[in-house]
Amino acid sequence: MRAAVYARVSTEEQAQHGYSLAEQKDSCTRRAKELGATEILEFADEGISGATLDRPGLEGLRSAIKEGIIDLIVLRDPDRLSRKLAHQLILTEEFEKAGVRLEFLDFTWQDSPEGKLFYNLKGAVAEYEREKIKERMIRGKNQKARQGGIPMNFSLYGYDYSPEKGVQINAQEAEIVKQIFHKFVSYTSPHAIAIELTQSGVPTKRNTNFWHRQVVRQILMNPAYKGEWVYQKNSDSPIIIPVPAIVSKEVWETAQQILAESRRLWAKRGKQQYLLSGLITCTDCGTPMGGHYGTHWGNRVRNYTCRKSESTNRIPGCSPAKLINADSLELIVWNEVKNLLNDPDKLVSAVKRNLPTDEDSKKEIDNLKRQLSDTEKGMTQLIDLIASGIVELDSKIKQKLTQLKQRRELLERRIKEANKESGLALFSRQDMKNLKRLASEIIKNIDDLEFEEKQQLVRSMVSQVYISGRIQGTYHLPDDLPGVDVKIMLRAEMVYSLKNLAIS
């Protein structure tokens, strides 16, 4: 019989109860041998709260159970699994489905309604105790804040912090903060300030050389720079903690007045609507195209552009900026949608052309499964090395395990999506009849649709619009874009998308 020993301890528990990983492992190993185990694997988590399931040791145990190599799990107490009742129930159900027996040292487990009730009650008590600990910690932090202390890790540009010395001004960063406020109150926009800081190579708090305009805005809005750091600002009773000021209160208040006026003027402009938002890609630079509302020969015009602000994106898009008239492009796509709905046979033919073939789907799924198998093997090998003591469970190993877990979840999700797409290749004649019927129903009221309904219809039928080229000369027709190639990709699963379309 193959057994697994699982041990977990947090710093607080070890101090209060004298638990240790070594003690738990030894005691559980002895019990496993008494129960007839011939092979024993050890899994452990040290200094990790039982309130989360994201623990490397527990992940290793669950992977081993999933692979079917474990018959018995021995641990000291149900609390070692989790301090949350919901998590305990999830894990025990998972283990039971895998045919794995649970054995506790300090708890008599009986696979009966009474035993399960007692187990659940014990989990509820553990969760209650955890909530009490959490509430005491919150009260302690709030009391420290009211006394002017910093109750949590303080990481703010312009300052350094340590528990011993408290909050201190970082002279180099503080100078940049002063420049930001000075430029802004002199009516330089956060957008322009961010670009200037990026081009000057000024490092951020995270030691990158890219400044986002929102980071500049956050600095301008933070009252800490006038000497008032707000703790629990989103609560009903925020606490103001004094910190060293970098700018005067007058300068900070002036910045807030300018920000408020900017928000007021921006609100007056009104929000423009873009029918193809999120669907367009520029094939010349490979970046998505978004809405742009600007002035052309004195007139305000809606456009789509792939050009991105240097203060918000590392990839700037085409240069010089590519602007595609939104009215013209939307009319081209909308007319194509209407034409397809007006001709159901043409619509069905277009959908069939976009369907994946069985062979293509099988190749993709096989490739994804190979990647998933390699990822799971990597996790198992790493867990074995940890369990055998060859590799220490340090921060790098924890990070590697987390990355492998995230990759596994991503691959599993993609396989599920690929299987769904594979099913599209098996569209029946009835599916095609349904598509024709839906098209006939939708086209009746298509000219009376509101903007949101039009946008929903387009997104149900179109998966992507690819744009290449540039406007050549002046165009006069509303659906004319000379020099620009517009390629519309339809959704292969359109029959399912249109079923969920609520258009009366």
SSE inventory with pairings:
Layout: E1 2-9, H1 11-17, H2 21-34, E2 39-46, H3 56-66, E3 72-75, H4 78-81, H5 85-97, E4 101-104, H6 113-146, E5 159-162, E6 166-169, H7 171-185, H8 190-199, H9 213-221, E7 228-231, E8 239-242, H10 249-269, E9 280-282, E10 290-296, E11 299-305, E12 323-325, H11 326-342, H12 344-354, H13 358-388, H14 395-424, H15 429-444, H16 451-461, E13 462-469, E14 484-490, H17 494-499
Parallel strand pairs: 1-2, 1-3, 3-4, 9-13
Antiparallel strand pairs: 5-6, 7-8, 10-11, 11-12, 13-14
Helix pairs in contact: 3-13, 5-6, 7-10, 8-9, 11-15, 12-15, 13-14
User: Into which percentage range does the β-strand content fall?
Assistant: 5-15%
Radius of gyration: 31 Å
Going by CATH, what is the homologous superfamily of the domain at 2-133?
A: Resolvase, N-terminal catalytic domain
Q: Could you say what the CATH architecture of the domain at 2-133 is?
A: 3-Layer(aba) Sandwich
Q: Mind telling me the CATH class of the domain at 2-133?
A: Alpha Beta
General form: flat
Outline the low-pLDDT stretches. Answer: none
Q: Tally of extended strands?
A: 14
Q: Strand pairing plus helix content: what structural class?
A: alpha/beta
Question: Given the structure, what is the number of helices?
Answer: 17
The percent range for helix content is: 40-55%
Widest β-sheet, arrangement of strands = 2-1-3-4
At the fold tier of CATH, the topology name of the domain at 2-133 is: Rossmann fold
The overall average pLDDT, rounded, is 80
Largest sheet: 4 strands, parallel
Question: What gap, in angstroms, lies between the N and C termini?
Answer: 63 Å
